[in-house]
Amino acid sequence: MEKNIRQLDDIIWQLDLKVDNESEFIAPYLIKAQNDYIIVDVGPTCGIKELIRQLETLGVNESNLKYVFLTHIHLDHSGGLGTFMESFPQTQIIVHRRGAPHLVDPDKVLWQSSLDTLGWVAEMYEKPMPVKEENIISIHDSTFNIKVNDLEFNWVETPGHASHHFSFMLEKKGIMFCGDSVGMLIPSLDSAMVPTTPHPYRLESGISSINLMLERKPKMLAFAHHAIRNDAPNLLKKHIVQLELWKNCVASCLDRKIFTEEDIGIELSKIDPDSARLLNAPDNFGGLRKALVGSITGFINLIKKEREQA
Ligand SMILES: [Zn+2]
Questions:
Q1: Of the ranges 149-163, 225-239, 282-296, which one carries the lowest mean pLDDT score?
Q2: Ligand 1 mean position, distance from CA 263 (Å)
Q3: pLDDT over 90 (residue 24)
Q4: Cα dist from 253 to 30, 266, 267, 292, 294, whole Å
Q5: What is the pLDDT of residue 220?
């Protein structure tokens, strides 16, 4: 098997799209349900050609790819969906009701807001193409259940990182596909786990989402960026502690008139070894580091807003 495709167990593969030549960055999961397939997130437009090539290698085609499950509609997860669907016209997309309109009309809000928040990273991802409404199953409730052949998936709304975020548990394996709602976990940086809290991050929702996942008793977590790990309960609890640590640190920085993301990053590195590993990582972790800087911005804005309202 080529090195960009990793078979994780008998029915799950991780496909590394090597966007911007960076590995461990954009990595959709492929799940096999008897003779059919499900893909979890498709990545940005610039990675679709490579994604389709990898799927062909694995024997996935337009008649056996039944579903795209979207964790949320940020460009790194679903930006390439319109382009992808040209090759998979019969595949159904399951997405949060708040995300669905932006898939159909990405020009209106999604593209512009992505340019504003991500800058060069959005340009590198490339513009999203529209998705046809008839392919979309929009979920209106806070939970959802679907059986695909022998596999049962239970969905739970997990806002915080995004208001349109779902996580879902593959019951047979006890794997919770948590998208970006429990941060990122980077295997080659000694499994550093860091927050994904871009503006407008909502800490209270983020923590209650993690508690909802804990209640489902997952055994494993499948991070969108970018690994499946055992010991889900401890990772979930560890992340809540980390979010609180970040909040206190960023608040204390603002009190001490430390305002820039770069300087706040230095302070965070002193108290959070996981974050230090990514902030001090080599250049080939540029996209992930940019995401981490965006997470610092999210905390700065969240604390400022809280103080304005106090
Ligand atoms: Zn992401």
A1: 282-296
A2: 24
A3: no
A4: 42, 10, 8, 17, 16
A5: 98
Tell me if 289 sits within 8 A of 269, measured CB to CB: no
* 68-82, 235-249, 273-287: range with lowest mean pLDDT: 273-287
Distance 121 CA to ligand 1 centre (A): 12
Report DSSP state, residue 183: B
Average pLDDT (117-124) is 89
Question: How far is the centre of ligand 1, averaged over its atoms, from the C-alpha of 310 (Å)?
Answer: 31
For the chain, what are the domain ranges? 5-233
Residue 284 has what pLDDT?
Answer: 84
Between CA 27 and CA 5 the distance in angstroms is 9
- Name the nearest CA neighbour of 147 among 171, 175, 166, 173: 171
Cα within 13 Å of Cα(191), Cβ side: 7
Ligand 1 centre to CA of 223 (Å) is 9
pLDDT at 190: 93
Which residue carries 């965070």 as its tokens?
268
* 1 has pLDDT over 70: no
Query: What are the CA-CA distances from residue 195 to residues 9, 91, 235, 246, 306 (Å)?
Result: 27, 32, 12, 9, 19
Q: CATH class for domain 5-233? A: alpha beta
- Which of 142-146, 219-223, 281-285 has the weakest average pLDDT? 281-285
Q: Distance between CA 42 and CA 64 in Å, rounded?
A: 16
CA-to-CA distance for 309 and 201, rounded, in angstroms?
16
CA of 271 to the centre of ligand 1 (A): 24
Residues with CB under 5 A from ligand 1 (ion): 76, 180
Query: Can you read off the two tokens belonging to residue 209?
Result: 């989402």
Q: How far is the CA of 257 from the centre of ligand 1 (A)?
A: 30
Claim: this prediction has a pTM higher than 0.90:
yes
